[in-house]
Specification:
- The structure holds two protein chains of two kinds.
- By secondary structure, chain A is mostly beta strands.
- Chain A contains no helices and eleven strands.
- In chain A, strand 4 and strand 5 form a beta hairpin.
- Chain A is globular, with a radius of gyration of 13 Å.
- In chain B, the strands form two sheets. In chain B, strands 1, 3, 4, 7, 8 and 9 form a six-stranded mixed sheet that branches. Chain B has a three-stranded antiparallel sheet with strand order 2-6-5, with no helix packed on it.
- Chain B is mostly beta strands.
- The chains are: A mainly beta, B mainly beta.
- Chains A and B meet through strand 5, strand 6 and strand 10 of A and strand 3, strand 7 and strand 8 of B.
């Protein structure tokens, strides 16, 4: 079964850092692009960042560029999101998703990040 | 990276058809063959319904269909069922390895 499991969320003060992880199983991880997306509870979806299979293509939403860093370790079937200089507006449920043909075909259940003093 | 425009809500009765629109610009929807649609039930992760404008992943019923004309993409759901009541999101590749979502549409099955 194809699965994605996020971890690393929690409560953090504004300006601090947090690192999210996503472990994949059930598919050949290094064949696919991977993405982070987020959703403020009760609001819509936002694409946050994407990374292709060999990390040669990476980009970010304008709202997080310069503060967040995406990375992957294909040997560990893992995706990461290093989030620095966190803001209250970064509070959201963060999903990792598998990319296929510029869409997101498998999603994890998400990990909640709350930025508050 | 401005969000795509979707109607906030649509509704119809079981068995009927409904179409949800998704309007962008020539930089995203109009210039891309990579429009996708997702359904999200409350408290659940989104599910991919349509990719590459018109393609359905394995397991998605043919009641769901996608199309595009100019800067507007559309999702049509025929033979509405109670389980279709959910939030629907469109998404488009926007160039330079970035993606943009619509604001979401709440579908109510009357």
């Amino acid at each position: 079964e194809v699965q994605l499991e996020e971890s690393g969320g929690g409560l953090v003060q504004p300006g601090r850092s947090l690192r999210l992880s996503c472990v994949a199983s059930g598919f050949t991880f290094d064949d696919y692009a991977m993405h982070w997306l987020r959703q403020i509870p009760g609001k819509g979806l936002e694409w946050v960042s994407g990374i292709n299979w060999n990390s040669a293509s990476i980009n970010y939403a304008d709202s997080v560029r310069g503060r967040f860093t995406i990375s992957r370790d294909n040997a560990k079937n893992s995706l990461y999101l290093q989030m620095n200089s966190l803001r209250t507006e970064d509070t959201a449920l963060y999903y990792c998703a598998k990319g296929v043909s510029d869409a997101f075909d498998v999603w994890g259940q998400g990990t909640m990040v709350t930025v508050s003093s | 990276q401005s969000a795509l425009t979707q109607p906030r809500s649509v509704s119809d009765s079981p068995g009927q058809s409904v179409t949800i629109s998704c309007t962008g610009t020539s930089s995203d929807v109009g210039g891309s063959n990579y429009v996708s649609w997702y359904r999200q039930h409350p408290g659940k992760a989104p599910k991919l319904l349509i990719y590459d404008v018109t393609k359905r992943p394995s397991g998605v019923p043919d009641r769901f269909s996608g199309s595009k004309s100019g800067n507007t993409a559309s999702l049509t759901i025929s033979g509405l069922q109670a389980e279709d009541e959910a939030d629907y999101y469109c998404c488009s590749y926007a160039g330079s390895y970035t993606w943009v979502f619509g604001g979401g549409t709440k579908l109510t099955v009357l």
